[in-house]
UniProtKB/TrEMBL annotation:
It holds the Pfam family Cupin_2. The lineage of its organism: Bacteria, Bacillati, Bacillota, Bacilli, Lactobacillales. CDD domains: cupin_HNL-like. InterPro entries: Cupin_2 (IPR013096), HNL-like_cupin (IPR047263), RmlC-like_jellyroll (IPR014710), RmlC_Cupin_sf (IPR011051). It comes from Streptococcus hyointestinalis. Signal peptide: none annotated. Residues 50-110 form the Cupin type-2 domain. This is Cupin domain-containing protein.
Amino acid sequence: MKYQDKTAFDTANHFGQGQANDAYAKYFIGQSYLKGLGATSDGAISLANVTFEPGCRNNWHIHKASRGGGQILICTAGEGWYQEEGKPAVSLQEGSVIVIPANVKHWHGAKCDSWFSHIAFGVPGEDTENIWLEEVSDEDYLALKD
């Protein structure tokens, strides 16, 4: 369900918005928010709710790993997009689950007319590293249609 009204979105966003995602702001177009949800005692897995204002998306990026690795997104409120390099964008709604293999260039974020939230967690692996790349151009982003 699309949410342009922030009050309605906040009601649907059960995990909460969290704080402005200032540490990663340079890798996002628009405002995002981050709320830590917990982690395993060894820190191998941590979960965070990421909230995107309408039109916000992260840059292209890769979750590198020599073995294992990658990322899983569980969409919890609003509507967004996910796209792997060379493939069409996938529309995301509440309940969508995206399993991103390691070493795949991709981006994700809100649709231009909806707030969006997903829980993100990195898949444990060996030699893991996030590589941030170029912005998703306005031209490519605005060309996406439901």
